[in-house]
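User: I'm putting together notes for a lab meeting next week and I want to include a structural view of one of the chains we've been expressing. I don't have a solved structure, so I'd like a prediction I can at least talk through. The sequence is below, exactly as it appears in our construct file.
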Amino acid sequence: MKIGDKVSVVDDNLKGLVTSVHGETVVFRDEFGFTHQYKMNELVLQNPNIYEGLKTIQKSESPKPVSRKHQRKHLILDLHFEKLVENPQFYDSTERIFIQKEKLMETFEFCRKNHLKQLEIVHGIGDGVVQKMVHDFLIGQTNIDFEQDVFFYHSAGNVMVWFR
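Assistant: Thanks for the context. Below is the predicted structure for the 164-residue chain, given as structure tokens.
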């Protein structure tokens, strides 16, 4: 370092022009006119010209590995009876609720067997019979979390289930 060099302090927000050098001690004046004294190893030369000849190389960012298990969307089970059977008009109400419960139990087994993390059950709003059946079924299950807030109970046509 020599007189007239621009320097900045490594561990402080100070910079200025070198006014004198005494062995390992450097004295510099900051932008406000105050003088400061630091050892040479605590200062860094400020020379913006040192980077002019260097070319910057733009490297592509390597893709973050994501497991296939987490790329899948959650499974959706629609319990609307028209989507479960071909001719819904041939079934009475007892058969309908029985078939819907069977489909719910099959889907739960599938989710547990394949280690799925989320299941969305679409039961519809209607009279609340299917909703009550789904809610009662979920209460009887273990190692799951589901939306069971009273506020949403009669206003939502679906429920999200998270498997632990």
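A couple of points you could mention at the meeting. The radius of gyration is 35 Å. The mean pLDDT is 85.

User: Perfect, that's what I needed.
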